[in-house]
Every structure is written in C-alpha cells, then in structure tokens.
Amino acid sequence: MLGFVLFVVGVLVVAGLLFLGASVLLGRGETQPPADPERSPVELPVDRAVTGDDVRGLRMTVALRGYRMSEVDWLLEQFARTLDERDAEIAALRARAHPGPAAADADRSEEEPDV
Fold this sequence. Notes:
By secondary structure, the protein is mostly helical. It has a domain at 44-98. It has four helices and no strands. The protein has helices at 2-26, 52-56, 69-97, 101-111.
C-alpha cells in the first residue's frame, strides 16, 4: 500500500514539474499585444507606386506559430505579378492616349508628302 501511495505522489510531482516547465517555456496563455501601426518590419515605398519588385523584396518576420512560408511566398509572387501586369497595362494605355514625340514625328511624316 505504501508503494502505491509513493507511486501516485511521484506521478503527481512529475506531472506538476512538467506543467511548470511547459508554463515557463510557453507562457501563461496571454496573447501578444496588437502591432503598432506606426512601426512595421515590412517597408514599402511611400514616394512612388508599389511595383512587383517591391513585393518580391518583402521579407516577413518568422514567428513560432506563423504562416506557412511557402504559401506567403506564393501569395506575394501572385501579388507582384498582378502589379507588373497592372503597370504594363497602364503604360500601354498612357502611350496610346498620349503618344510620345517619336510617334508624333512619325505621324507628321506620313501626313506630309515628300517634295
């Protein structure tokens, strides 16, 4: 009978020590405070439009229980590709709406016959 009581006490002591160790190691369950909106480890340009290379250059901080890095990388690549396509389309539309001096000279030379 004494052996059984010592066994139960031993199991309770070991369980208590494991619980205490896990509590110290993992914290007491409090959540992290919200991120400060004025300070971010991710920086994007403020003086110009964001480009695909800006997005490709982003590096997120790694956390113990964060996102899967492969999924974040895939999403950033999709976002960068979308930005590149948007920029190319805007450039094409601007070129069509406001032809440059070379295009204007070509148009004038077609209109004026050579004498």
